[in-house]
Design goal:
By secondary structure, this protein is of the alpha/beta class. The chain has eleven helices and eleven strands. The radius of gyration is 27 Å and the shape is elongated.
Length: about 325
Amino acid sequence: MKTGKIIRAIMAIILCSAILLLLDLNNRQATPRKEMTKIAIFKISSRIALDQSEKGAIDALAERGYKDGVNCIIKKYSAEGDMPTGNMIANNIVNGKFDYVITISTPATQIMANANKKGRVTHVFCTVTDPFVSGIGITGPEPDQHPKHLVGIGTFQPVELAFDIAKQMKPDLKKVGTVWCTSETCSEACVKLARKKCAELNIELVETSVESSTEVLERAMSLSAKGVEAFWLGGDNVVELGVDQLINAAQKAGIPLFTNNPYLIYGSTLFGVGAQYYEVGQLAANMVCDIIEGKPTSKIGTYNVVPINLKVNPEALKNLKVKWDISAFEKNFVTK
């Protein structure tokens, strides 16, 4: 009698367990567990302009509902100016099952594009001077002129505007020096445009090149010895890492530096005109969100986007050997 009761109890337990397992199976089949979207953000180094783009991207992702640890995974990477480190980061992104990567700067974009030739990760780039000459497979602005997995926006620094402003501040400006890295396509693109603009304005552009940021001071001093009246810095990741050396050389020579990076306004830097890189990062992140939400990359073109950012540093006038008039400039441009 007791044995029968025990058997019936065991059978009841087994039956209940089977029913519960079946219900749980049905539930799991109805709502399968979804892997969170993985997004990498990769910049070539930690500098204000690139940091601003990164912040803009993260904020825009959050505004669109993509928050790290909540419904997606966002990982930030910086090579800190070191190319081997950049290559390692790019390979880790490709092999790390990331769905999307946002690259910030021309070098980071080039490194990532090279590592991701098979298109295993959807790649969106920003803060790139000229994507068409960067060797990443983009042949023009139309949606059918880029690889399926690679889209983004160019942000060509307003080089011509920088020289127009300099000429307004000093109408008799005749000789400007520039230090640039010849291995950077972004820097080369800026210098080519500067040569053309200087020819139009009857300004001699005196150039010298560097391979690393440690050479900036020596090269800049050689330019000041040639009698340049100002230094100009375009979009150059290598020279920007040594910008304090360039500012130091300008101070020693009693001449100003003007630049296409509005975040470098201190010391002898008289003005900077470039892009609002926070907005640039926002645009790139919104592009990622659009793709996540179903917009095909075949509908996205590659366009130049430069939300202008202009800064002036009147304190720099105190160190100049000759007069630069910012009042004439202020009549024609709104400063913030």
